[in-house]
Amino acid sequence: MAWLLTLALSGCATRPSLEVTERRAFDFQTDTLAYSNALVWDYHFNPTNGKRMVSRHEPAPDYTHHCFVVVRVAAQFHQHARFDETLSPPDEAACRELIREVIRRSPRTESPLKDRVIIPGYANLNAFSAAWEPLLKAECGGAWQSYLQRGHWRMVMPFTRGQQEEMALNLWSAVRARRAPVIHIVKFPQLTINHALLVFGATPTRDEIRFDVYDPNHPAKPEALTFHRETRTFTFPPKPYFWGGVVDIYEIYHGWNY
Model-level pTM? Predict the structure, then answer.
């Protein structure tokens, strides 16, 4: 009960300000990109011994290692853009400038509604990215931005159970405030998973918090990330690229050092 009270108090402590109340909650159907971050490898797990085997995917995909880029872009459009399908759609040159204007803005801040970049001719990011997929892929950043994201130093530092509990509370408070945190999900030093997700929903119970996440590798439906109260651990279910199990979490694109 004390833990649930902490959740409630945490939510009250981060009550949205007047500016924050302008936020629109992240909508998985409309605020995600219409394309995915492709995998270089096909993963095969042996359920008997838990060993993982990999083989190169054929044919080779042309958009890989962009998981951090994809979720960052989704966050930036959610925080800095406004879509208006009643206006005439822009041509390619105008689209390029609109994309660049959004990407220039920091994923650590949020633009007031009156200052957001207006994207004419489209109802939302999903529709816009379906129409301009090659252009978005070209303009939003290379794979190197996934490798060199400045918060990567954090994954080599110890993760305590207390720190992970605090992270769960912070994510829950962020979702209540209609913020969509981007997180780095890791197992270090094994690196069996080294991935980025966007958190947009949370359902707390007495025993756990179930977070709804946008996985750029599998954008067809929301995925689940679960925080367990008793063990103060996060778990992520099996995926084609991950056997499943306990993971460590920290938020990126938030604060000066991430």
Answer: 0.83
